[in-house]
Amino acid sequence: MWKWVILVLVVMLGLLQYRLWFGEGGIHEFNDIQARADVLEGTTQTLKARNDRLAAEVVDLKTGLDAIEERARSDIGMVRKDEQFFWVPDVDASHGPAAETGVITP
């Protein structure tokens, strides 16, 4: 009699273990969800850093003229009235500060 009770209990324990490891809501599903959450968290951190940089740039553009001047120089090549712009073809921009902007202040 006790043999059957023990056997039934062992089988039930095995079935419960099977559901824990392989069933719906088990360990494998938990690991899959955890991996997806980690990937999403990494993406979120990247996007948050980008948003922070953009927010800082917006504040800088709203408050200071230096950022506006820098954007105008780099994006559309603007030069101030008291500067001269010399463009030399086939020269890379790693030869100094004047080569980076192409602008020489007298």
UniProtKB/TrEMBL annotation:
It is a single-pass type II membrane protein. Keywords: Cell cycle, Cell division, Cell inner membrane, Cell membrane, Membrane, Transmembrane, Transmembrane helix. Pfam families: DivIC (PF04977). Its main location: membrane. Essential cell division protein. May link together the upstream cell division proteins, which are predominantly cytoplasmic, with the downstream cell division proteins, which are predominantly periplasmic. NCBIfam families: PRK00888.1. Belongs to the FtsB family. This is Cell division protein FtsB. It comes from Salinicola endophyticus.
